[in-house]
Design a protein that fits this description.
The structure is a homotetramer. Chain A is an alpha+beta fold. Chain A has a single domain, classed as 3-Layer(aba) Sandwich (L-fuculose-1-phosphate Aldolase). Helices cover 41% and strands 14% of the residues of chain A. At the A-C interface, helix 7 and helix 8 of A face helix 3, helix 5 and helix 7 of C. Chains A, B, C, D: It catalyses: L-ribulose 5-phosphate = D-xylulose 5-phosphate.
């Protein structure tokens, strides 16, 4: 069932340690087959060097396991909400990558300070609203998804233009058209967080990029007028 | 004698350089056989790439060497105290991992700023009290163990819920149910110290997690209602 | 066509990931044949581990592709301007190396704080002037080249003595007599930015080196009285 | 001539890149044969992966090359002074390791903030006095040696108890009984500088260790009552 997608999701998961984004088992990638309404996700707490494509778990859009010997990632309900509410995304990544986590812990949006950010994220990467005590005690992982969606809606941020979030006091989730692109975005987020941390320690002047620089760099790589890379 | 435990302790020691937790020979792991009342520990000052399981030294709970050609770690009296006073722990690690040492040198408890911390440490990781001049001059390593125990008692911290300490002006000790878990906790402590350092440089607002987030994440991975990972 | 130069430029490009200067495809090296008035540059957006010498693109000094199956780097117009206006340089590098980017984002010139800097850069590495909205919206990459040239002219900096710049809110460009030397300068810039960042966090006193130390170290490695290294 | 020492010095040089202490060719190790009054040093500007034991240069205590096809390190006059004035040292290392350089650039002594420092350096590692313009313009490398010696004399620091210095606006020199021990001290200095940098950013309270902790840790590893490691 979904063998090709399982392989892609497996390979995207294996990119996380290669890109230096995970410690131990602290990360997961999923990918969705929109036609079938099913997504594939890493099993919970399995070490990367023991993982196989067959270990991937198939889940439906109610968050129910449809196939798989192992428990799916404990973050599965968060992925379920995001696939339901962000209808154009094809893959999701969660990590505890340290620079991104530092901003999530500090509760500070990752500002757009340069072209490295603007090439991928069309504006600030927001810190999510805080979950209430009630939201944490009940259906915590589902509520984490809901608070991400609510944060984007309330702040009027387009999740396709800003494909990531810093869950407050927790860490980053990123997404993309495919599992691979979601992993790419997870790495960009970490690199940008590192750069921005140091820039903000050098100066606390307002150094955010102007809108026209954001436009230039974002649309250089996205949309019909993109001109970076090769035409395929 | 204790061949299986020696092998486990050897392998746990070899994890330290792989996880980036030691420079030169600055680290040691021990593990205990509670039934026999004996623990196994790395020899003092031996390079990791020359270490073998047979080099491990067997020590009793009075801190006396029972078997072994080599001197045990100079920190053996600290391990002895901890095994005596923390009766449920099965393994102990000491390193000079740099982020944890920085908090130990600064004398600042490692605060719980996020879920990465809360998944493993149920509250602040304390900096130990200072040793007096007398305590340093006489039976220093034993007194280091005593000051750890005293710190936990005075501050009413459960060593099973917070399996680590920052010895003031020295560095981290961690422990766990097994030598492997103690190593795991040593790595988590280092990663969390790195994240927290950067969060604290971004803001000095109170950003500690609320108690209910600490509860949620700690008990997600510990105790009878834990639901992270696979049932074995 | 220019097979030998293509090989050199290819090899210089492959140094970037080895030296830890690039993430994904975010970097490019070019090299020029001054006699023929043609330069060779990396194709746009191609992954380093798939790159071959044959993929290199040949461009003339009007910025027109003369040979090559692939699109040249999107930064080609910047390279074109620099080759035209800096007539003695033989190679150019652009990266998003994180320490250098942090200074570019903060808008702070990289000061000469020590001999590591002075050995390669004869004075501050400047942050370029900002591009205007008009300059960003039209012929952005060409205008990036122009603003670099203008910055050096207005601040009376010799591009041979200070072979690099931090493009504001973007990142570093370096150059040199050959592609290899331009790569060397890119690495020095990154290392110096790391050292200087930490020095500036330790103290904000004026710690710039005196002119005579700058003279000593720069001319120890450059010009007819250089005495570092071997005579060939 | 001195084949065994050449091999030791070669191997000590090759430790520098393995320990992450050098970029490019920015480092050198020497070792002395006190009986013959000759020392062996790395040639200037040769890449580590091309170095062989035969490339090592033999120099006498006047700083004259006695044997060798290649130019000795440009820092040879500094080594010469140190061997003459510090009669008990057997090996010297110079690097531009980034954390140590940051303190040298900032002009801040590396304070003893913990046991990692005290195990190797019996007190602050000093920043050298500044060289005058005259001293930099004439016999610069010899004067660098002289200013190190003068700094230790004026501040009454024993170079055997504190086997290293931060040359102001330049970088670290370390030394030891053998070339290997000098390399060990170079690594300790770098690690301690990293730890201390972060501790000092966490707090600017006085966090230097008390004298009795310095005594305990230094003499735990040095002198006739040392008890760390194995008796050989």
């Amino acid at each position: 069932m979904l063998e090709s997608l399982k392989k892609k999701v497996y390979e995207a998961n294996m990119q996380l340690p290669k890109l230096g984004l995970v410690t131990f088992t602290w990360g997961n990638v999923s990918g969705i087959d929109r036609d079938k309404g099913l997504f594939v996700i890493k099993p919970s707490g399995v070490e990367y060097d023991k993982l196989t494509p067959d270990d991937m778990v198939v889940v439906n859009l109610k968050g129910e396991v449809v196939e798989g010997k192992l428990n799916p990632s404990s973050d599965t309900p968060t992925h379920t909400v995001l696939y339901n509410k962000f209808p154009n995304i094809g893959g999701i990544v969660h990590t505890h990558s340290p620079w991104a986590v530092s901003f999530a812990e500090a509760g500070i949006d990752l500002p757009a300070l340069g072209t490295t950010h603007a090439d991928t994220f069309y504006g600030k990467v927001p810190v999510s609203n805080a979950l209430t005590e009630e939201e944490i005690k009940t259906a915590y992982e589902k509520n984490t998804g809901d608070v991400i969606v609510r944060t984007f809606r309330e702040r009027n941020i387009d999740p396709e233009a800003v494909p990531g979030v810093l869950v407050r006091q927790h860490g980053p989730f990123t997404w993309g058209a495919t599992p691979d692109k979601a992993v790419y975005n997870a790495k960009v987020l970490e690199v940008v967080a590192e750069m921005d941390y140091h820039a903000l320690q050098l100066t606390r002047d307002n150094i955010e990029v102007p809108q026209y620089l954001l436009d230039k760099h974002y649309y250089r790589k996205h949309g019909k007028n993109a001109y970076y890379g090769q035409k395929n």
